[in-house]
Amino acid sequence: MIAFLAEIRFDRSGDSAAYVAQGWGPQEPVHRWAVGAESHMRLPVARPGPGCVLLLGAMPWCDAVSLPVQTVMLAVNGRLLANVEWEGHRTLAFPLPASIEDDDELTLEIHHLSSRLTRPEAGLSPSGEPFGLLVTDLRVFRLPPPRLPPATRGPVAGEMADGTLQAAVQAATGLAPERLAARFESIGQNCEFGLVQRGLGAEPLGLLRFASVVNHMLVEGLMAGFAGVGRPETTRVFVSDPPECEYKVHEQTYYLWYSTRRTAAEATQDAVWREQCRRLAFLQRKFVEDLRAGEKICVLTFIEPGRLSGAEALAVFCALNVHGPNALLWTVFGDPARAGQVDRLYPGFLLGHLGAVDERGYASWDAWLSVLCNAELLLKD
């Protein structure tokens, strides 16, 4: 089971003062700025052993004109972790190098390779140094030694149009497509997988099935079990613009957005608000119970494409396992020849290939059903 070892919080009431060294600004209400050319801090673990992963939640100072993206180099005890081009608030995960497993003390180095290029009149801290990263949290996890090597299962032969794919999937898994689809649970980003489940005949209840949530808040929500969602003071109901005029929900604790598919002709705004507060509280309890049981496969779809996606998905996988041993199916778009293929990156951590997308940005249901089948079979190994 994945172990959660330690964390540092960088808000005003957090404990970052005990760990930071050079290159840091003062603690602010919800964050602390890493400033200057580089920033150092001690990590809250010693002799970490094998399989440790560092999760860093941060947002770079960027400017649309002078610095749209920051280039950041991360190292621990002089060993390179990663070079990343960073924009937006993200939580990224980086495996620690094996060469530091027995070191008595670990020091994280953040080299702000491009922050010094910011314009003098913008992006400078009160001390006159350029802003680097706005850091909110740092966590350390340990992954258990892999029991199985990486593996791949190719696309399942057949098509849904003539029923051959459904038959092949049922023969391989022993499950009809609707029962197979119900084994999975969407954990946000968009509603595509929820619609796929509906198309396959499954209608499971899920907190994030039709909700949008940004990645760094997904990690925070998973760590906390989405505690507090549905509170009257943080749940807002709005009416969308014509022609839909549907009630939309914004849950402010974790920035969840979704549509209720109900209109003012069907219910009052106050009635929908009360209903959604109750619904969110119920689905949060169910979500945590499911995570503790560890029986479902969580699906993370439509992560923003790019070189940081793998680091974001690994962060979600770690956070997902705080409550129990849970599997993650991370899906990506791309090569049509690989549509339906699934790779096992790590026991419980799968990469599904959905191939090409249509004009709406959705993959084919054939690719989805093949991915679900292969994920089920790889997790049975």
Radius of gyration equals 22 Å
Uncertain runs with pLDDT below 50, 5 residues or more?
none
Oligomer: single chain
Number of helices: 7
* Overall SS class: alpha+beta
Helix content: 10-25%
Helix-strand pattern: EEEEEEEEEEEHHEHHEEEHEHEEEH
N-to-C span = 17 Å
The largest sheet, given as strand count, sense and whether it forms a barrel, is: 6 strands, antiparallel
Overall mean pLDDT score?
A: 91
Shape: globular
Strand content: 25-35%
Report the strand count: 19
Walk me through this protein's architecture.
This protein is of the alpha+beta class and 381 residues long. It has helices at residues 164-173, 177-181, 192-199, 215-224, 269-293, 309-320, 365-380, and strands at residues 3-9, 24-27, 32-35, 38-42, 52-60, 70-76, 79-86, 90-95, 107-112, 131-142, 151-153, 184-186, 235-239, 246-251, 256-263, 297-300, 327-332, 342-346, 349-353. Strand 2 (24-27) and strand 3 (32-35) form a beta hairpin. Helix 4 (215-224) runs parallel beside helix 6 (309-320). The longest helix has 25 residues, at 269-293. The mean pLDDT is 91.
Break the fold down into its secondary structure elements and pairings.
Blueprint: E1 3-9, E2 24-27, E3 32-35, E4 38-42, E5 52-60, E6 70-76, E7 79-86, E8 90-95, E9 107-112, E10 131-142, E11 151-153, H1 164-173, H2 177-181, E12 184-186, H3 192-199, H4 215-224, E13 235-239, E14 246-251, E15 256-263, H5 269-293, E16 297-300, H6 309-320, E17 327-332, E18 342-346, E19 349-353, H7 365-380
Parallel strand pairs: 12-16, 16-17, 17-19
Antiparallel strand pairs: 1-10, 2-3, 3-10, 4-9, 5-8, 5-10, 6-7, 6-9, 11-18, 13-14, 14-15, 18-19
